[in-house]
User: Which sequence fits this backbone?
């Protein structure tokens, strides 16, 4: 294999009209960086004049070369430049000169298509646009232009929705219409379906109205948290869907209420302040998981105790906290075992001397009772969409935020593989 072929193979060049000189490689410092420079020339006989379109004949003369520094993907971690001398021709039919074109780079551009392809692949990773630009020796604006031209923003199919959906929201960017954006997910496969700029009810009603009635009727289950506008949306737009409240949010509701009850007591009881503050995790722990066999020394206590002894000591400080704690444990057990009868029995009982926070939680559970019963009958959950939301938050944090919601959404869809890409780039 000749040196010409070796260089073409290393640099991933497919244009056979590019030729390299004998001593074509050297290093050069450009803008403070050590760059690998390969020098060659582009020459072939054109078929016609690029200005007037006249077919090539004897009235075409070679008219020197014009030099372009074309940016290539890095080689061995070094920024790489192709110093290409492009042949120029003078057309005597129109008395205008033109420069030969190459498939390596678009006309009037100094960034190779291979570099743009490399940028497009980097956009699939959880990386900031600034880092991608730095690694590919381009500007951040170039990365955005590649994103816009390389990835075709396809329209979401409005004639199909999966059997099980999951709704949730995440904090949006400042330029968005609402503070929170809406996330729609397939709860069986875990794949994101779409992201809506605003989660408010009127925006979601408008969005789902674009889906056909048949596709909305196909949905059988929708998993949500206890956000009332979602309930109103589902009852109006999804005639056959059953609402399922995610178990995690049910446990979170009662655990927060118990925690607020503890904090309320902690602020009043200065003598046991440190004990109430330090051992909050033991209060939220399932009572059956507390250790009552291993005796050890706990901070703030002078004698050897078990975990259950610590919890009992804290509960004896307040009757209100104790009653709230036992209610919390009963509800927690019902949620974990999916025991309908126990749950309904708890809701029907008259609970006295519990904290106002627990009373509010009970009222919320009664309000969503029918949907919670659906939760007991099915195994669907919001785990997939919560994981996707965490990915979105990580992507946003790595990028130090996004100014435009359109670019934020595009980057999410690209990283999730929801926007197809093509190797044909025009930037």
Assistant:
């Amino acid at each position: 294999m000749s040196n010409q072929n070796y260089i073409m193979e290393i640099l991933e060049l497919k244009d056979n009209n590019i030729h390299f000189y004998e001593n074509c490689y050297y290093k050069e410092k450009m803008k403070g960086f050590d760059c690998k420079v390969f020098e060659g020339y582009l020459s072939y006989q054109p078929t016609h004049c690029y200005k007037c379109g006249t077919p090539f004949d004897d009235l075409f003369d070679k008219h020197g070369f014009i030099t372009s520094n074309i940016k290539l993907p890095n080689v061995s971690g070094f920024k790489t430049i192709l110093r290409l001398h492009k042949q120029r021709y003078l057309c005597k039919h129109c008395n205008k000169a033109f420069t030969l074109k190459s498939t390596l780079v678009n006309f009037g551009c100094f960034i190779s298509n291979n570099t743009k392809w490399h940028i497009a692949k980097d956009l699939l990773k959880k990386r900031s646009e600034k880092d991608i630009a730095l690694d590919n020796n381009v500007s951040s604006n170039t990365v955005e232009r590649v994103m816009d031209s390389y990835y075709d923003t396809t329209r979401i199919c409005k004639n199909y929705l999966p059997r099980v959906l999951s709704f949730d929201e995440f904090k949006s960017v400042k330029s968005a219409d609402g503070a929170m954006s809406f996330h729609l997910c397939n709860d069986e496969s875990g794949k994101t379906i779409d992201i809506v700029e605003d989660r408010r009810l009127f925006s979601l009603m408008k969005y789902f109205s674009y889906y056909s009635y048949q596709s909305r009727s196909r949905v059988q289950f929708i998993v949500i948290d206890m956000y009332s506008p979602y309930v109103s949306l589902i009852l109006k737009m999804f005639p056959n869907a059953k609402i399922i409240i995610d178990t995690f949010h049910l446990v979170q509701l009662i655990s927060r209420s118990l925690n607020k009850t503890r904090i309320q007591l902690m602020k009043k009881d200065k003598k046991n302040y440190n004990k109430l503050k330090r051992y909050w995790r033991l209060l939220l722990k399932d009572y059956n998981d507390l250790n009552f066999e291993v005796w050890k020394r706990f901070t703030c206590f002078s004698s050897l105790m078990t975990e259950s002894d610590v919890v009992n000591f804290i509960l004896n400080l307040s009757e209100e906290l104790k009653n709230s704690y036992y209610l919390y444990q009963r509800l927690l057990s019902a949620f974990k075992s999916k025991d309908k009868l126990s749950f309904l029995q708890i809701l029907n009982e008259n609970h006295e001397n519990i904290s106002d926070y627990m009373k509010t939680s009970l009222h919320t559970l009664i309000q969503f009772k029918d949907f919670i019963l659906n939760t007991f009958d099915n195994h669907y959950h919001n785990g997939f969409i919560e994981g996707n939301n965490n990915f979105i938050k990580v992507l946003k944090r790595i990028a130090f935020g996004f100014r435009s919601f359109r670019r934020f959404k595009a980057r999410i869809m690209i990283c999730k593989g929801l926007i197809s890409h093509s190797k044909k780039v025009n930037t």
